[in-house]
Structure formats: C-alpha cells, structure tokens
Amino acid sequence: MEGIEHKNISVNGLNIHIAEKGHGPLVLFLHGFPELWYSWRHQIVYLADQGYRAVAPDLRGYGDTTGAPVNDHTKFTVYHLVGDLIGLLDAITSDQGEKVFVVGHDWGAYVAWHLGMFRPDRVKALVNLSMPFTPWNPMGDMVQILRAAYGEDHYVVRFQEPGEIEAELARMDAKTIVKKFLTFHESGPIYFPKGKGFHHSPDDAIVSLPPWLSEYDVGYFASKLEKAGISGGVNYYRVLRLNWELSASWSGAKVTVPTKFIIGDEDLVYYMPGMKDYIDGGGFKKDVPLLEEVVVMKGAAHFINQEKADEINKHIIEFIRKF
C-alpha cells in the first residue's frame, strides 16, 4: 500500500476519487459491488512494480467519489458509467486519444465490456474477471431472466425497489454487510428473502474471515460504505431494465479489443442460467472475436482478484506484456 497516491478529478459532473501508483503505460482498474478502488490494492502495487501506471477509481456512487444523485437510479446507466471513464481518461492522460489497458471485475467488468464496445479506440487490451460479456437479449433484461430462473428472493430481484433493500440492510452495521457479501463462497445464487436478511448467513451469524480478507480490510470497506451508503452500488442493478431498453441499437454488436477472461469455478456467476454454455460453447468467442484466452480458476469464488491475488497479478501481466 505504500506509495499509493489519492486524487480527486472533476469529471462528468462528478468528483471522482482515484488511487494510483507507478509510471509507464496506464492500467485502469474497475471494481465491482459492493467494493472500492481498494479491491485492487494487490494489483496496484504489483503492476506499479512491473513498470506500469496503475489507476483505480471509486466508480459513480461508491466510496470517495461524490456528486452522483444516488436517489435517482436513472443516472447510473452504462452510458453514464462509460462517459465517466472517458472523461477520466481524458483528464489523466496527456494525449486525449491514448489507448489504455483495462481490467474489470464484476460490475467493473460489465462497464469495461461496454467501454470496449462503445470506444475500442481507447482500449489497448482488456482483462475481465468474473462477469463475461452479456450481449443484448431480445427475450428481456437480466432482471426478468433471473426472476424467471430463481424467483422473487434472488438478490438482483430484491434490489429493484428503491429504498427496500436499504431498509433491510440498515438492521446490520457496515462491517457485517461487507463480511456477508465478500465471504460468500457458494456456486449457487445469493437469496435475500424479504424481512429475513441473507439466506446463507442470518443477521446474527458470526462470519469467519478467509485468509485473504483481514479485519483491517473489512474496516476500510465498511468506513466508505458508511460514508457513501449502499444506494449508489444498488443503482447499478436497478438500472438494468433501462440499460436494456436503451441498448437495443447495440444488438449484435461485438467487443473488438484483445481480451482475456478469468472466472473461478466456484463463482456464482459461472452457474447463472446458460452461462457455462455461453462461455465454453462458442457464443462468448463469437461476441468477443479477439478473446484470446478463458481461464477457469480452480477453487476460486467471486471476489477472485482478492482471493487469488498473486495468480491474478500474473495473469494480468502475462497478457498485457504482449502489447
């Protein structure tokens, strides 16, 4: 963590907080839910030591990034999010057309896929974790698909009603919320029955931390969650329907940047309806024609960049060194 610098950049109506270290080609790291720049702490230090400039923002609605109207989920579309990144890149690079390396996880991967699709002129190469590309589906948006597959208690479905999940999570302190999300290590979905909290871990259940997650780490995540609240992060789920409506014109579009994808074989995303077949059966490669490698990491769950930090570091550097 030593040597990581923190800055605030005025972009797209926001005050975006970034953490950065190193000099050289820029690597932009994009975090997921319910996380922060801090999720990339291991990668920032490692890539900087390898001669790269590692930059990790708190995305819109998260952490120390301010200015987003968290009470209006319509201001969190993928178009807003990609716009934030283009503005950020313009602000922190000397050449406004500079191509950069991008590494995303979870929602950060979702945004990175769309950055690569909308603006391939700004992406040198892409490494995405846990969340494969999801092409526009004429059958409906992801909320509809997950509701049909898993019912009303699935967490994505439960996240849709503004204020509802916030009220339920208010029963717990921020550290407990962080622990229950980050330690989830099952291949099945997260259920959140109404009025009952996390199905996999009752409110008062003691959570044992894995070796890769310390009490200090939990405390850092929790301190920023207390400051920013959880609505910003939940808005990414609430806007899924609107994203689907706005993205119909991108039906059939491809991500045309060199790409590597990594997922854990115990990641809940890997077991979502149709996901394994899409990843392994040729659909993924059709939509991302420059997909060079898919890595299914044994024994790893969803928060793979923290759980398997050393392996992820090596996968990233081995791929981006090609360019």
Describe the structure.
Keywords: Hydrolase. It is an enzyme of class 3 (hydrolase). It catalyses: an epoxide + H2O = an ethanediol; (24S)-24,25-epoxycucurbitadienol + H2O = (24R)-24,25-dihydroxycucurbitadienol. The chain has 323 residues and is of the alpha/beta class. It has 14 helices and eight strands. The protein has helices spanning 41-49, 78-92, 107-118, 142-150, 155-158, 164-169, 174-182, 215-228, 231-238, 240-246, 275-280, 283-287, 304-307, 309-320, and strands at residues 5-11, 14-21, 26-30, 53-57, 100-105, 123-129, 259-264, 291-297. The chain has an eight-stranded mixed beta sheet with strand order 1-2-4-3-5-6-7-8, with helices on both faces. The radius of gyration is 18 Å and the shape is globular. The mean pLDDT is 96.
Structural class: alpha/beta
Percentage beta strand: 15-25%
Largest sheet: 8 strands, mixed
Instruction: Report the order of strands and helices.
Output: EEEHEHEHEHHHHHHHEHHEHH
Distance between the termini: 27 Å
How many DSSP helices? 14
Strand order of the largest sheet: 1-2-4-3-5-6-7-8
Radius of gyration equals 18 Å
Mean of residue pLDDT? 96
Unreliable residue runs = none
Helix content: 25-40%
Name the shape in a single word.
Answer: globular
Strand tally: 8
Family: Belongs to the AB hydrolase superfamily. Epoxide hydrolase family.
Catalytic activity: an epoxide + H2O = an ethanediol; (24S)-24,25-epoxycucurbitadienol + H2O = (24R)-24,25-dihydroxycucurbitadienol
Pathway: Secondary metabolite biosynthesis; terpenoid biosynthesis
Organism: Deinandra increscens subsp. villosa
